[in-house]
Specification:
It catalyses: D-sedoheptulose 7-phosphate + D-glyceraldehyde 3-phosphate = D-erythrose 4-phosphate + beta-D-fructose 6-phosphate. Helix content is 52%, strand content 17%. The protein has eleven helices and eight strands. The chain is globular and about 70 Å long. Bound molecules: erythose-4-phosphate. The site of erythose-4-phosphate has 11 residues, from helix 7.
Length: 217
Amino acid sequence: MKFFVDTADIDAIRELNELGMVDGVTTNPSLILKSGRDILEVTKEICDIVTGPVSAEVIALEAEDMISEGRRLAEIADNIVVKVPLTWDGLKACKTLTDEGRMVNVTLCFSANQALLAAKAGATFISPFIGRLDDLNLDGLQLISDIREIYDNYGYETQVLAASIRTANHMSDCAKLGADVATAPPGVIKAMVNHVLTDKGLDAFVADAKKAGIKIV
Ligand code: E4P
């Protein structure tokens, strides 16, 4: 499973990228707002750091305007993925932009039917939002499983990009379900390393190394 980092925080992207943890980046208007930066400027900086796909989201609501914005965003770098919402206009924009050879991420997906439409419109990525479904006592992971099954039934090449990831467990659950990509905030990716038995075991090894007077270099 590929890891995308869901942020516009340059320092966090750089840190995880140096560890080989960043296969791509996703942003959205809320993350751009949080960064306090201009969208074109911060997106360009991200594309200079990361070689994988970098999603940048349109803000228009009508297809023609989304297409114009998508073309402008795609001028930033070759690895730009134009992110469009899962509306009828978004699907129209997806079809036009993918026909032009651009990568498109269809976002705000909350149902298997929506994911089916995005695949038919030629989406490069579909972004089902797990956390926002879980927030409503619905089953975000079940949606990942349903989309995987449907895409596999018909050989759709649209990649399942699990989004709205809130916990480290979401990452392993998505991997088990066969998501192609999971995009998570830097804090969630970092939390994946944590295990209480690792900490406990390390404390014991450190104490014993001290008692034994072990010195390696
Ligand atoms: C990804 O593309 C989305 O922008 C993101 O995962 C949304 O996450 P949230 O529901 O935590 O805002």
